Amino acid sequence: MPPRHPPVAPGTMKNTRSFCIIAHIDHGKSTLADRLIQSCGGVDERDFRDQILDSMDIERERGITIKSNSVTLNYTARDGETYRLNLIDTPGHVDFSHEVRRSLMSCEGALLLVDAAQGVEAQTVANMYLALEYDLEIVPVINKIDLPSADIERVKEEIEEDLGLEAEHAVLCSAKTGKGIVDVLEAIVTRLPPPAGDPEAPLQAMIFDAQYDPYRGAVLLCRVQQGRLRPGQSALLMHTGKRYDVEEVGLLQLKRVSVPELDAGSVGYVIAGIKSVSDIEVGDTITDARSPAAAPLPGYKEAKPVVFSSIYPMSTEEYPELVRALEKLKLNDAALIYEKDSSAALGFGFRCGFLGLLHLEVVQERLRREYDLSLILSAPSVRYRVTTTAGETVWVDNPSYYPNPGQIDHVEEPYIKASVMMPERYLGPVMELCRERRGEGTTFTYLAVGRVELTSEMPLAEVIFDFYDRLKSTTQGYGSFDYEMLDYRATDLVKVDILVNGEPVDALSQLVHRERARGRALHYCERLEETIPRQQFKIAIQGAIGGDIIARKTINAFRKDVTAKCYGGDITRKRKLLEKQKKGKKRMKMVGNVEIPQSAFIAVLKTDKD
Questions:
Q1: Within 10 Å of residue 196's Cβ, how many Cβ atoms?
Q2: 343 φ, ψ to 5°?
Q3: How confident is the model at residue 239 (pLDDT cuts 50, 70, 90)?
Q4: From CA 101, how far away is CA 302, in angstroms rounded?
Q5: What is the pLDDT of residues 432-484, one digit of tens each?
Q6: Average pLDDT for 324-338
Q7: Which CATH number fits domain 204-288: 3.30.1330.10, 1.10.10.60, 2.40.30.10, 2.60.40.10?
Q8: In terms of CATH architecture, what is 495-604?
Q9: Kind of pairing between the strands at 267-271 and 217-226
Q10: Are the C-beta atoms of residues 399 and 510 closer than 8 Å to each other?
């Protein structure tokens, strides 16, 4: 066994452990958190429910963690000592790695959870490197040992080979059945270090998350690194320079429990009458305004959005509600950025930046559920770097601002390094999928018997549409995907406009690679043909690059049978009536406007049928 920390008197910092659980998606983080909370008596049996730290409905339905959440537990160890455990549950999906990063900054150690059947996967590796970046002590935990397909020896081998951790000290448990949970708790108190902070030093507390309470204003979740935080103090936020009087501090024990003070090493909440959502920056440092710390806490990286989409309310009357909803959501989701936008077809809205497509979906779903808004989203795009003939560099994420092709010298698009872990039998189809998505420099390495890691450099624009869904289908759910940003590379980009009856529809314009332009334009034209109602005249729906038409669909007109009253007689009588009808329709087409229903926009902006 690794060395045990010397026993210490309760109530000191040495009896505190701050740790998080990191793992790939669906390896059992939230279930392990449930068992730890139950074992420490953190919740009554009648109040217990599965995924107790997942507070949002969308998290519980999808079985994923989106928001980091924390809870303070008391645990009496085998040696009779009582410890205070600060547990921070983190998401596993690549889109929410910023949540993981913030949580890691509030911890001294991490439980690295690995599925006993599936083994080490893409996000396991990515999260471990994040934890090492912050010098955390890592305890490997092998979960789901009760599964019939569990192969503990193979997983231990993967932990040693892929992660470089000592697998002989890995803790074995089953979060579902509760087997081995006490061993996990003992590993936390014996193998993870206590916080290293001075309670008598000037106050430094890092805000790692925030919640909005309609009665109390913004509730800040923070980790006190140095000093003490208590009600009545004048708190100074070091990045924004704003001051507030602290009203209440406390611990999160599934509910907010107020305490007289938070000392160094504590993880808790602060209420300071902060009414304006825009005053908070997650990652800011709280200090005492009367005797401030010399400098804010270092190391916080701002999340950089990579996917952009415009959000419009279904009804223009809902615009003020959308403004308020985004303000509140921004407090709880530091990675979301937005700015005002408008469209001739859809009115006023916002151009938003997201960390990935799942992040976009979650934001859309939260706006719909928590704020009761009906929304239309434009097609997602990435940010391109355009160099003009005058030598200027322009960043473009919205097709409306794409310069005239005559003024463009060259365009560059973001590339990622995609890493896919999968069973060996799926290697061929996944390589074909990467080739389809313009992947280059594709290599693969064998991790263990029958398991392969494939890496490929590909444009981010090819990944954001439906790459993840296609990968899961191709590998029957066994493939795991992670990516990191690389650089910008030259591309042959074109702006595709969609014309309805000769008029461009600005909300449907998109920037795509020239090879993909016809396929994407045809998809839009087909969807519009299915959803725009027929008129008294023919409607041409066209996809165009500049003046060149690359795709077309036609919605036929309603036709009255004007020849019904002709019985017998010469054919010229029928021709005369049909010519008269044709002239009327031609005149109607010149003056008629086509109203595109919102259902058409929604249908078009969904991904491909496959």
A1: 11
A2: -140, 140
A3: confident
A4: 10
A5: 888 888 888 888 888 767 778 888 898 888 887 777 778 878 887 777 777 77
A6: 77
A7: 2.40.30.10
A8: 2-Layer Sandwich (3.30)
A9: antiparallel
A10: yes
Q: 0.85 cut: is pTM over it?
A: no
Res. 100: pLDDT tops 70? no
The CA R_g of the chain, rounded to the nearest whole Å, is 29
CB of 495 within 8 A of CB of 399? yes
Determine the Cα angle at 377 with ends 388 and 322, to 5°: 110
Residue in the structure block whose two tokens are 């002239």:
583
CA–CA separation, 546 vs 498, rounded Å? 11
Strands (E), 390-479: 393-396, 408-423, 440-448, 451-459
Mean pLDDT of the residues in the chain: 76
Task: Answer yes or no: are the C-beta atoms of 102 and 67 closer than 8 Å.
Answer: no
The helix, strand and coil proportions of the chain, stated in percent and rounded to the nearest 5, come to 30, 35, 35
Q: Which CATH superfamily is domain 13-191 in?
A: P-loop containing nucleotide triphosphate hydrolases (3.40.50.300)
Quick one: pLDDT at residue 363? Answer: 83
Domain 307-377, CATH number (from 3.40.190.10, 3.20.20.140, 3.30.70.870, 3.40.228.10): 3.30.70.870
124, two tokens: 């396991």
pLDDT digits (tens, 9 = 90+) for 17-72: 888 888 877 777 778 888 887 777 755 554 544 544 444 444 444 444 444 467 78
What is the C-alpha end-to-end distance of the chain, expressed in Å? 53
544 beta partners? 497, 549
- pLDDT, average across residues 558-572: 68
pLDDT at 438: 86
Q: For residues 162, 164, 166 and 168, what is the CA-based torsion angle, rounded to 10 degrees?
A: 20
For the chain, give every domain's residue range: 13-191, 204-288, 307-377, 384-491, 495-604
